[in-house]
């Protein structure tokens, strides 16, 4: 089973890398080959060929399964000829409305759209004052909308918005028109999914109302209902730099803790009743109580990948208790992995998927090989193994590794999992704000301690995104280094990590110049590179409260291993060219060459400002630059 699951996940991942989807004929051929491999595997007894067939069959099955799902999702997109038209749609607000600087944004399940081929789910924006719009999850509305097909910018090392929409089944985005007044048709649609979303919205509103001026209210909302959008970007940077980002939302650790607490309470209470114990053994009742609690928490939290993984693992363990057939930890993890990818083939493209399952796999690996000794030493080994084992993934995904993560997690895990999260969940069902205020006070104290750790000069290692081929030797080296005592020369595993850090991105030759034209939508941002210098010409547009500098330029520079620019050139002050200039300048551009006036915020963000003048020239690495 484990070989099949690994192959299935690899096949689903491979499908996501294809430029063109296979047709239904190709999907059927892959499925048939997978069935053939399974049938042949049943007739083999040799373990190695059997494992290879399971791996290949799983890869074919995962590829076919993900391709089929993708074909269904792509077919549910808005036809191009229907873009930009006014359409009347009736449906239900399917998730938490999110306020932004110009209004509200929310997912919308379409029930009726006349003869228009409108996708089943939309992402709508409604412009205006959020307090006046008063849209709530689970309400049925009739809107006049104008839609467009899903699209986003596409650059290396940056967020893929179009893939994010595809994963969530959103076939079009658009906005509510004022041409005809919107009409609320029902205050609440009584379906389980909408009732859950309404409950999540009520909890979020209650938390934010109880903590109106509190810095970390968004973290408590994230811990209770999984909505992370109220957390400040500056706080996210702190969490990732200290390696505790996984604790600031619904994580497997929180679900396990809550489930385990409920299971312990059910077990203790069940044993005290002889009548109940005779009807059902206490351990089976505890397993059922823990699984139901985990399900309820995951539903309240929005069913994120870490929560799904933990729910499926706990459900597998609970089922094994019921059937009196305990399974190995690796089989339980494999079952959870298969369930996550089968239900959501796009999960393999999320950072949370790899970090969540990778952390659990490392815990199991180290826990089995180093089970003896004091519990404190065992905990330290696990924290060190997770930091080391996830380093290649963190470098690929975020281009940084927190070196203080073991120490930060040693402090933060007990505080967040055993104090803050239980208080936040108790506040969901307890009147008054005192529990939330107590949880916030504890959280604020923890943040101050984390800031002290983050101020250390060796807190974070930052570098370029490593080449893909360096991951395989790095992971092999980590497995070797974490091997049990008796394995010879474990220190040699560190040599296999060297390419991860030593293989730098390619640079232009002396006298050559590279131009990277970044996709920023409407606007312009061009990176000009010579052998040892880099210049950015324009910084793209602003996107409301965000801008292309933060979303596109800086992630691209980090991925390419450039910590700072040598110069920023802004051609003119129009928003689609200078919208991201302040963000880029503040991140480390020592020279600003532009036609901007001193009133522009970017002007004061750099130490040297040079107005653009006709005929001005300079030379970098054998390449001459001149303003015309």
Q: Can you describe what's shown?
A:
By secondary structure, the protein is an alpha+beta fold. It has five domains: 2-75; 80-190, OB fold (Dihydrolipoamide Acetyltransferase, E2P) (Beta Barrel); 233-394 and 404-452, no CATH class; 468-502, no CATH class; 514-626, Ribonuclease Z/Hydroxyacylglutathione hydrolase-like (Metallo-beta-lactamase, Chain A, 4-Layer Sandwich). 51% of the residues lie in helices and 14% in strands. The chain has 22 helices and 19 strands. The protein has a six-stranded mixed sheet with strand order 10-11-12-15-16-17. It has a five-stranded mixed barrel with strand order 1-3-4-6-5. It is globular, with a radius of gyration of 27 Å. The relative contact order is 0.07.
Number of strands: 19
Side-by-side strand order of the widest sheet: 10-11-12-15-16-17
Mean pLDDT: 87
Shape: globular
Structural class: alpha+beta
Uncertain residue segments: none
Please write out the topology:
Elements lengths: L1 H15 L7 H20 L3 H29 L10 E8 L4 E3 L2 E10 L8 E7 L2 H4 L6 E9 L12 H7 L4 E5 L6 E4 L5 H19 L6 H9 L7 H10 L9 H20 L2 H6 L2 H19 L4 H19 L5 H15 L7 H19 L5 H24 L1 E3 L2 H25 L4 H21 L5 E3 L8 H11 L16 H5 L11 E4 L8 E4 L4 E4 L4 E2 L2 E2 H12 L7 E4 L4 H4 L2 H6 L4 E4 L13 E4 L5 E4 L2 E4 L2
Parallel strand pairs: 4-6, 12-15, 15-16, 16-17
Antiparallel strand pairs: 1-3, 1-5, 2-3, 3-4, 5-6, 5-7, 8-9, 10-11, 11-12, 13-14, 18-19
Helix pairs in contact: 1-3, 1-13, 2-3, 6-7, 7-16, 8-17, 9-11, 9-12, 9-16, 11-12, 12-13, 13-14, 14-15, 15-16, 15-18, 16-17
């Amino acid at each position: 089973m484990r070989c099949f699951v690994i192959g299935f996940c690899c096949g689903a991942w491979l499908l996501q890398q294809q430029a063109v989807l296979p047709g239904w004929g190709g999907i059927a051929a892959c499925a048939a080959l997978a069935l053939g491999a399974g049938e042949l595997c049943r007739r083999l007894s040799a373990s190695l060929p059997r494992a290879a067939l399971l791996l290949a069959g799983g890869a074919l099955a995962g590829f076919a399964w993900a391709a089929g799902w993708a074909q269904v999702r792509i077919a549910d997109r808005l036809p191009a000829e229907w873009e930009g038209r006014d359409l009347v749609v009736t449906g239900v607000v399917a998730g938490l409305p999110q306020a932004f600087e110009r209004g509200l944004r929310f997912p919308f399940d379409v029930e009726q759209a006349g003869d228009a081929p409108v996708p089943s789910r939309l992402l709508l924006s409604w412009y205006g004052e959020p307090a006046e719009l008063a849209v709530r999850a689970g309400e049925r509305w009739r809107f006049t909308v104008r839609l467009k097909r899903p699209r986003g910018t596409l650059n290396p090392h940056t967020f893929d918005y179009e893939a994010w929409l595809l994963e969530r089944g959103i076939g079009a985005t658009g906005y509510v028109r004022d041409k005809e007044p919107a009409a609320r048709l029902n205050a609440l649609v009584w379906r389980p999914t909408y009732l859950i979303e309404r409950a999540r919205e009520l909890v979020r509103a209650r938390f934010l109302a109880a903590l109106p001026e509190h810095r970390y209210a968004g973290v408590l909302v994230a811990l209770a209902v999984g909505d992370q959008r109220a957390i400040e970007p500056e706080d996210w940077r702190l969490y990732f730099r200290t390696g505790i980002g996984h604790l600031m939302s619904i994580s497997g650790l929180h679900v396990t803790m809550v489930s385990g607490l409920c299971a312990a309470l059910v077990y203790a209470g069940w044993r005290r009743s002889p009548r109940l114990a005779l009807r059902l053994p206490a351990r089976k009742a505890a397993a059922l109580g823990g699984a139901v609690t985990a399900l309820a928490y995951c539903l309240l939290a929005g069913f994120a990948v870490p929560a799904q993984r933990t729910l499926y693992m706990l459900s597998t363990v609970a089922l094994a208790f019921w059937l009196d057939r305990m399974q190995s930890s690796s089989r339980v993890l494999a079952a959870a992995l298969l369930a996550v990818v089968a239900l959501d083939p796009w999960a393999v493209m999320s950072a949370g998927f790899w970090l969540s399952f990778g952390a659990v796999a490392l815990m199991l690996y180290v826990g089995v090989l180093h089970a003896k000794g004091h519990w404190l030493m065992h905990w330290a080994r696990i924290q060190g193994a997770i930091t080391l084992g996830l380093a290649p993934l963190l470098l690929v995904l975020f281009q940084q590794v927190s070196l203080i993560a073991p120490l930060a997690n040693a402090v933060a895990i007990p505080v967040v999992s055993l104090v803050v999260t239980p208080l936040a969940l108790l506040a969901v069902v307890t009147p008054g704000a005192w529990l939330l205020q107590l949880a916030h006070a504890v959280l604020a104290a923890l943040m101050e301690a984390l800031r002290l750790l983050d101020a250390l000069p060796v807190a974070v290692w930052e570098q370029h995104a490593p080449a893909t081929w360096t991951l395989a030797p790095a992971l092999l080296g980590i497995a070797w280094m974490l091997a049990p005592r008796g394995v010879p020369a474990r220190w040699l595993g560190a040599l296999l990590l060297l390419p991860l850090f030593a293989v730098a991105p390619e640079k232009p030759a002396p006298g050559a110049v590279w131009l990277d034209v970044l996709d920023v939508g409407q606007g312009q941002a061009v990176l000009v590179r010579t052998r040892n210098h880099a210049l950015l010409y324009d910084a793209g547009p602003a996107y409301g409260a965000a801008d292309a500098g933060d979303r596109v330029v800086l992630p691209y520079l980090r991925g390419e291993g450039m910590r700072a620019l040598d110069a920023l050139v802004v051609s003119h002050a129009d928003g689609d060219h200078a919208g991201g200039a302040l963000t880029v300048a503040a991140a480390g551009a020592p020279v600003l060459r532009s036609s901007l006036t001193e009133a522009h915020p970017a002007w004061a963000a750099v130490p040297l400002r040079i107005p653009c003048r006709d005929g001005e020239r300079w030379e970098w690495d054998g390449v001459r630059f001149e303003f015309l």
